[in-house]
Amino acid sequence: MEFFIDTGDLEEIKTAYEWGIIDGVTTNPSLVAKAGIDQKTLITSISEIVDGPISAEVISSDAKGMLEEAYELAKIHENVVIKLPMTKDGMIACKQLSKDDIKTNVTLVFSANQALLAAKNGATYVSPFVGRLDDIGQTGMALIAEIRDIFDNYGYATKILAASIRHCDHVKASALMASDVATVPFKVLEQLFHHPLTKIGLDKFMADHQNAKK
Ligand code: G3P
Fold this sequence. Notes:
The chain has about 210 residues and is of the alpha/beta class.
């Protein structure tokens, strides 16, 4: 499974990239706003750190506006992936960008049917938001399993990008359900490294090593 980092924080991206586990980056308008710099500058800076897909989201609500934004964003770097909302206009833009050979990530996907529509229109990635489904009392991870089955049934090349990941169990479940990618916030990426027995074991090894030297 590929790991993307879900952030617009350049320090987080640099740190996680050094760990060697990051294959790409996802951003959204909320994360860009939080970064406090304009989207073009942010995406350019990310492309100087990470050699992998970088999702940059459009903010227009009509297909024409989305496409205009998409062509500008795509000029920033060949790794830019255009993030489009799961709307009718988003799907029109998705179909066109697929014809133009520009990579897309259809976001705000909350049902298997939405993912199916995105795949039919040639999306490179679909982003099911598992955490936000959990928030409303549904089981977000069940959606990943449904989409996996549907894509496998028809051989769609569209990649499943599990998004709105909130904790380590979401990451594990994504891998068990054969999600192609999980986009993970920095805090959760950090937590993935930890296990209490690793710490206890390492402390014991170090103590034994020190005692042996005496
Ligand atoms: O990038 C989209 C997604 O991962 C958002 O996550 O935590 O705001 O639901 P969250």
